[in-house]
Amino acid sequence: MWEQIRVNKRNSVILLGLMGAALCGLGFLLGFAFGGGPDAGWIGIFIATCVWLVMMLVSLYGGDQILLASSRATPVTEDVHPQLFNIVEEMTIAANLPKMPKIYIINDPAPNAFATGRDPQHASVAVTAGLLGKLNRDELQGVIAHEISHILHRDILYVTVAGVMLGAIVLLSQIFFRGMFYSALGGRRYSSRSRGGGGAQALIMILAIIAAILAPLFAQILYFSLSRKREYLADAGAVRLTRYPQGLAGALEKIAGTNISMESANKATAPMYIANPFRGKKAMNLFSTHPPIEERIRILRTMAHGAGYRDYNQAFEQVTHRGGVIPPSAVKPDEQVGLRQGDASAQPVSPKHSHRQVGDIMRKVNGFTFIPCACGLRLKLPPDFKSRTVQCPRCKRTHNT
């Protein structure tokens, strides 16, 4: 496990180094183009580095809260969903994490989940109301184990930092194009007559334009390509923690079968989710944040002999006809991780029950009070309900609020 984390960290450093080089290179070209010389190019690198450092500090010490707030995630207590807290506690112990992650619920009917934070001591898990309403216990355990694996593998810090660096590159590109636009409106021209640089200045301007277009694309390809690989690794980690690949496979099937896009998701937060939060798009291309969900399901369904990394690698190679996704240093030839049977009490969730469950969870998160009546009806009172008593509409009993 520690070997896998070490390889993961090394690959993260390499990727972040490439993105940092792209950021500084873009800053140099933009400074050269606007300033008209190498000295201005170095100033551009300095400004780009300052932008990156400020955004990095913000992401390290407040990035998780920013991402949670932008996703409209609400912190909840155990009474909102006891089963969720129980499963998170189970997986925290199984993964030997030093601290149980904070738990958030997103009031969204689309089933999905993500983890964020900077390390296992400062981590959070957020799930949607739709996920809690649609999954049985085994399936929910598979999803939580997947997110705990992201925390265990130190993916959460990488996603936050890489996303911020990508944002810095996009920001510099936008500044450049806006500067060109306003300069054009003001009648300013970056030509040999205005700068005295001849063809060299025109060439630098062309290179700056090309870099401003390609740098964000290059950074996105790097960011998303490794994000896809990390989803496979988190699936493998989830199976190892639960010893039940069918649970995660069932959860992914239900997520894939939902045609609801998440209203609270955006391009910056999309790579964090267990599945692509946007619907109606192709599952795999250069800018896809996730591997094809159908492929992930087939890999999990193929695991019939064990729940170890070696077993996941064999299933991956059988389904994809590519080399294993787990680093060789993390695969032990003699590893034996047995499969367990599914929870007999984990009954299928009917669509009618799921719809009611999702609505109830969303109401609990919004502060509704639930009062059970002897006739079997549950009264659901909004947080701004002022009366001290309420009458059951079915049996006419009066209840104190």
Provide the descriptors you would attach to this structure in a database record.
2 domains, four-stranded mixed sheet, 8 strands, single chain, alpha+beta, two-stranded antiparallel sheet
Largest sheet: 4 strands, mixed
Question: How would you describe the shape?
Answer: globular
Low-confidence stretches: 189-196
Class based on secondary structure composition and strand pairing: alpha+beta
* Range of helix content: 55-70%
What does the average pLDDT come to?
Answer: 82
Q: Care to count the β-strands? A: 8
- The total count of helices amounts to 12
- Which strand order does the major sheet show? 1-2-4-3
Report strand %: 5-15%
N- and C-termini, Cα separation: 52 Å
Number of domains: 2
H and E order: HHEHEEEHHHHHHHHHEEEE
Radius of gyration: 25 Å
Could you characterize the architecture of this molecule?
With 401 residues, this protein is of the alpha+beta class. The protein folds into two domains: 1-355, no CATH class; 368-400, no CATH class. It has helices at 2-35, 38-70, 82-94, 129-134, 137-152, 155-185, 192-195, 198-242, 245-256, 293-302, 309-320, 351-365, and strands at residues 73-75, 102-106, 113-119, 122-128, 369-372, 378-381, 389-391, 398-400. It has a four-stranded mixed beta sheet, sandwiched between helices. A two-stranded antiparallel sheet has the order 5-6. A hairpin with a 2-residue loop joins β3 (113-119) and β4. The chain starts with a helix and ends with a strand.
